[in-house]
Amino acid sequence: MITRRNFLASTAAAIPAVSYLSMAQQAFADTPKNLLVVAQQLDNMTTLDPHVSFEATGSEIIGNMYQQLVSPNPENPDVVDADVAESWEASDDDKMFTFKIRDGIKFSSGNELTAEDAAWSLRRTVKLNKSPAFIISQFGFTPENVDEMIQATDPRTLVIKTAEPTSIGFLVYCLSANIGCVADKQTVMANEVDGDMGSAWLDKNSAGSATFMLNTWRPSDAVVLTVNPHAGYEGPIERVMLRHIVDPASQMLMLTKGDIDIARNLTAEQLESVKSDDSIKLLRKQQASIMQLSMNVSHDKLSDPKVWEAVKWAIDYQGIKDNILGDTYEVHQSFVPNGLPGALNDTIFTQDIDKAKSLLAEAGYPDGFEIELDHYSAQPYPDIAQAVQANLAEVGIKAKLISGENRQVLTKMRARQHQMIISAWGTDYFDPNANADPYIINKDNSDDATSKPFVWRSHFQDDELIAMAEDARDEKDPAARIEKYLELQKKFVHASPFAIMFQKTATVAMRDNIDGVILAPLPSNNSYEEVTKT
């Protein structure tokens, strides 16, 4: 099989266009060998513009339609692979970065991909200034200066200038996000309306160079991808149909009957039940999404670091994972998720009731105290909250549970009105700074601060941790940078009011004749391009 992942540029014959939307209304028993049918919840998508989309499902679909300048290595998180860019280097002052663009890549339109497409795509992200723009704007780019700072000096050379000396490792990891997707400038700008840089058109069309291109998107119904005839793909899958099936029970029934090839949203109980079904197999991958208990240090009972430590020693992490979460989460206690560069995967805390009680006594609470604990109302959060409540009760902390919809809980936390709270945090881009920044860097702790990162919500500010985070971010040597992040995490787990508990695991359930599905820590790197179907 020839795929983009192997960087081959041979051209496959164009596949005749056939509308599969009518097939979305039919049962898919014995799905055709050239059609991959996936049941998935698709209702959180708002756009398929690679420089605007910031939802997980949309990012995944975009990742199958566009190539990025560089891509995270699926096996080694400390490495990025060449993609559109075949090589890159930094200037002596670490303020100018030169990327050589691979020759022979073509967009689905047939247009050749050049350095100008890559430069324009990055400039477009900055000028549109939508949700993901901060990933690249943090290097000093503005709509006013980006034309000067990001340029193609010839058809194969992209030059990026940053406002300040920058670690090439940090820059390259950021460029592996969707903001590094290269779009077809000529095609997109031909569909520009009222100066929108083609955004309205690109919401529901594609202009990429990866294996697949968009055939149709019907919101909350179906997405159909067809093969990009210029991608050099020679695999067996001609079309991928994603069907919006909300109910996991319906997904389960369709999978067991053979009406679909893949189910993406089965519950932990359903996944456990299909383990004995020889016609179904499971693929698991940890996602860059972590769950933690946050303590608001403005509350008098939660201001002492000894209390933070006591809470962390009180929780039965493994027991909650084994009895509630099963294979859907793993114990993880660092702010950098496993699968990202520099992740600390050590288990620092296990339940130790005596140690927790001793720390509470040292903090002046030998008999514990009462506190409120907010959590999301959707499972598995209520069950986790009840387990944590029972754990805390063992050391004398009486937690009153307050359940709310996701937006209610987050609104309360963003207003700094919580005491304790169990919530989740998803990583925005493939670099440890993506989480170090929101968990640590809080320069202004006032209520009217301009920047209000995750750490600000809990009134936490630690100058030593901030200095360590900034030093790690700016370290020029890639290996030294990773070591600094490891040291930062080792300090953070003890010196912060965040009890990080679990990391989510995504599971794909598929028929036993399906192979080659790729899952990655970030959804933008999940891929169907290497799928085979026997």
UniProtKB/TrEMBL annotation:
UniProt signal peptide: 1-29
Location in or out of the cell: Periplasm
Keyword Hydrolase tagged: no
InterPro entries: Peptide/Ni-bd (IPR030678), SBP_5 (IPR039424), SBP_5_dom (IPR000914), TAT_signal (IPR006311)
Official protein name in the record: Peptide ABC transporter substrate-binding protein
Coiled-coil region(s): none
Top-level taxon: Bacteria
Single GO MF annotation: peptide transmembrane transporter activity
GO biological process: peptide transport
Gene3D superfamilies associated with the record: Dipeptide-binding Protein, Domain 1, Dipeptide-binding Protein, Domain 3, Periplasmic binding protein-like II
Domain Solute-binding protein family: 83-444
